Amino acid sequence: MDLKVDPEEMDPNHEPPSLEVFAHSSTLHGISHIFTYERFCVKRCLWLLFFLGSLTFLLYVCVDRIHFYLEYPHVTKLDEITTPTMTFPAVTFCNLNAFRFSSVTRNDLYHAGELLALLNQRYEIRDVHLVEESVLESLKAKTDFHNFKPRPFNMREFYDRTGHDISEMLLACHFHGTECRPEDFKALLWPRLSSSLLLAQPQVTAKDAMPSSQAGVGNVCTVVFKVKQHIHTLDICSNVF
Q1: Is residue 110 located within the same domain as residue 171?
Q2: Cα–Cα distance for residue pair 195/160, rounded to 1 Å
Q3: How many structural domains does the chain have?
Q4: In this structure, are residues 240 and 98 in contact, taking their beta carbons and an 8 Å threshold?
């Protein structure tokens, strides 16, 4: 089979096409105006600036998209669904006043006095000058460990016994016109030694749960507590909790 070859390609002395010829035969937009036979320097410089600017912008977009892809982006889609009724929520009320000092015994102070920031390592009252005079005498009597025989101590039992009773604090509780009772609260103990009250009904079924059909002031949970400021533990010593 015979192949037709141009004489120019057979000539070893034939020079390759010039840069101007390559630019005019290229389909890359703008390059033909940069490498041209014309001698208008200003026009060629403008086309060179436009070409380099476009090329720089193209490279910037490519690098930015590659960097964005390597970050493994994702989009979280949420579907909003309206419901005619809302089940009674679990509302937690935390009490920083973790225990009642009037219910603390000598055995409690012996085992947990340092933990409660009331005693030091030598079983002595911490910062006596900061303790209220109304409780100082009672605290001195409870910290008299002479001939005292300690009994077993349990922190859970301590908070159940010395914590504030919801039946004494709850003055009123309503949710969507339904009255809440102390039995609807469940006492919790958090790791930071602060007692909390969880208002919920974990044992009831969906049929017995208290629903709400709409939002508004008259359809929310309204709770009134008695503060019991006269036995506020935080006032005993300024650095307690």
Answers
A1: yes
A2: 9
A3: 2
A4: no
